[in-house]
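Researcher: Structure prediction, please.
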Amino acid sequence: MTSTFLPDKRSGPDVDLPSPAADAGRGRARRRRLHWLTAVGFQAPALVLFGVLVLLPMLFALYASFFRWGGFGMPGDYVGGDNFTRLFQDPVFLGDLWRCLVLVVLSLALQLPFALALAIALNQRVRGRAVYRMLFFAPYILSEAITGVLFGMIFAPDDGLADHVLGAIGLDGAGGQWFADPSTVMATLFLVMTWKYFGFHMMLYLAGLQSIPAELTEAALIDGAGPWQRFRHVTLPLLAPTLRISVFLSVIGSIQLFDLVWVTTAGGPDHHSETMAVTMFQYGFKRYQVGYASAISVAMFAISLVFALAYQRFVLRRDLEGATTTLRGGGS
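Model: Predicted structure follows.
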């Protein structure tokens, strides 16, 4: 009797079949690559513009700062660090540093406290507070050029609105050459700066105040805390992150101040209202000393960078640590 043996399927050659885990891993890898390519595709136009309009000019300014160059053709007269040596021997630039420090101190001591006081007042239940907020914020919306022209007319000698108002209240001798007198030009310029920028800081403070839970203030009130105690022990600590950002923006803005000064005084009289940016513009576009102007721009960038890094390290450290998030899933 013969028997027929059917082939055993298990005895055939081994075939490696893809496991579900391997398929899932390859699928995750494809999705990661797709997400990465999508992110690069969306960011590429912005990165290209940033590189062309920001990084390349910065690198070229650094390169040009080592040359005596008038701005035409390519830099060819290499002078090494002479432009930077000249920079810190230039009384105009040293005066710019001093005036920048004065503006920073005045902003921190007067402009920001004024904005904070208005923000606290407008955070209360005041009739028509929305209108007041709009009116106080409106100057910030105006361009610096419009603001400069406006206050140029207001402080025009003998015929401006400021002199007419002083004359109407019996202070005829108090007016004068507001922007033309070295003894009053910086005070007048700071007044214009305060009018222009205090609304921005006021809105920052208002946003910070409205993020403070009302329950905390009510609890302090129930415990018998007065207005000053509530402000000192509740409002001020919770508003501190907003205050730190406001101070940072104010200092950086004072270092880079240009357009408002240029429109109102052009740095005069006799450099008494000049800032680093105005000096850079004067040398670069009026005197065609682009190499020296590039050295000024590098110095401005270095000052801003050092301040920003130091401020982030010693002042914003707590805020940045609180906002830090850890990316997971892509490896350690």
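Model: Residues 100 and 255 are 6 Å apart (CA to CA).
Researcher: Thanks, that helps.
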